[in-house]
């Protein structure tokens, strides 16, 4: 059994490596055909630029501050989304007030909110605000649906055994909603990162990944533009993997309660 699992993991890793090598080759030959680094730099040029950037202190300061801003906005969005889901399920008035607004937020383009936010709040707070705004509808919709679809038999059993509200929440509602919560968080963290970086490109806060992306484009530093784009992708993977690890750890702790 262990050997089979190891073989499957090795096979998946080899397939991913082969896919990566294929697209690197496509990129390399496309750069050769175009023959203009200003349009498509070679992978070697981009990797060299990325290595240089990553040796600079400003690179890590920008990456750290972008992560802090966007993760703060994401966490605020998760908390607000859960709170609104509970309130809109529990109180009809809250549902009438907030559900239409959340649906409007979900349907409005990100760029529109970024431009409006620049009129209302300090430009350095826009990335966190945008991350929050993009996360709330996803978490709200998932948690609301999970609460509404909680097994009625479990709720009847909780009532029969005279569980209090807190005990019913801990033993029935939370376990029922955890899969939906995990899925919503996993989906929203990537969206929060992308919308936060887009906001940084437009509002240009000091020391941010989005700001350096913008300057790379303005000064026609295409290898640097590609390098910062790769940094954005790698940081997104870091956020998602870190969250997945913390969620698994928290899930194991919850199971022990």
Kindly list the characteristics that best describe this protein:
257 residues; MetI-like fold; 2 domains; 10 helices; globular
Compact summary:
The chain is mainly α and 257 residues long. It has 10 helices and no strands.
What is the succession of H and E elements?
HHHHHHHHHH
CATH architecture name of the largest domain:
Orthogonal Bundle
Number of helices: 10
Number of strands: 0
Oligomeric assembly? single chain
CATH class of the largest domain: Mainly Alpha
Globally, the shape reads globular
Structural class, judged by helices and strands? mainly alpha
Main β-sheet, in a few words? none
The CATH homologous superfamily of the largest domain is termed MetI-like
Number of domains: 2
Distance between the termini: 31 Å
Low-confidence stretches: none
Please tell me the overall pLDDT: 84
In helices, the fraction of residues equals over 70%
Q: Return Rg in Å.
A: 23 Å
Describe it.
- The longest helix has 39 residues, at 165-203.
- The radius of gyration is 23 Å and the shape is globular.
- The chain has 2 domains: 1-35; 42-256, MetI-like (MetI-like fold), CATH 1.10.3720.
- The mean pLDDT is 84.
- The protein has helices at 2-34, 43-54, 57-90, 92-107, 110-120, 126-148, 152-160, 165-203, 209-218, 222-256.
- It starts with a helix and ends with a helix.
- It contains 10 helices and no strands.
- Helix content is 86%, strand content 0%.
- The protein is mainly α and 257 residues long.
């Amino acid at each position: 059994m262990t050997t089979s699992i190891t073989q499957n993991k090795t096979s998946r890793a080899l397939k991913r490596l082969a896919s990566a090598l294929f697209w690197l080759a496509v990129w390399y030959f496309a750069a050769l055909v175009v023959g203009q680094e200003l349009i498509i730099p070679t992978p070697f040029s981009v990797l060299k630029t990325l290595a240089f950037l990553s040796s600079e202190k400003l690179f890590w300061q920008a990456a750290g501050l972008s992560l802090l801003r966007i993760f703060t906005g994401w966490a605020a969005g998760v908390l607000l989304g859960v709170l609104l889901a509970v309130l809109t399920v529990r109180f009809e008035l809250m549902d009438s007030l907030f559900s239409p607004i959340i649906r409007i937020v979900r349907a409005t383009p990100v760029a529109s909110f970024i431009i409006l936010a620049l009129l209302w709040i300090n430009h350095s707070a826009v990335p966190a605000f945008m991350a929050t705004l993009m996360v709330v509808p996803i978490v709200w919709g998932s948690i609301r649906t999970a609460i509404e679809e909680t097994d009625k038999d479990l709720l009847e059993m909780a009532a029969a055994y005279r569980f209090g509200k807190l005990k019913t929440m801990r033993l029935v509602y939370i376990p029922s909603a955890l899969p939906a919560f995990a899925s919503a968080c996993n989906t929203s963290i990537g969206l929060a990162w992308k919308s936060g970086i887009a906001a940084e490109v437009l509002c240009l806060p000091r020391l941010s990944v989005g700001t350096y992306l913008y300057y790379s484009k303005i000064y026609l530093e295409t290898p640097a533009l590609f390098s910062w784009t790769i940094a954005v992708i790698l940081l997104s993977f870091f956020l998602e993997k870190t969250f997945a690890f913390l969620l698994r750890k928290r899930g194991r702790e919850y199971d022990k309660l």
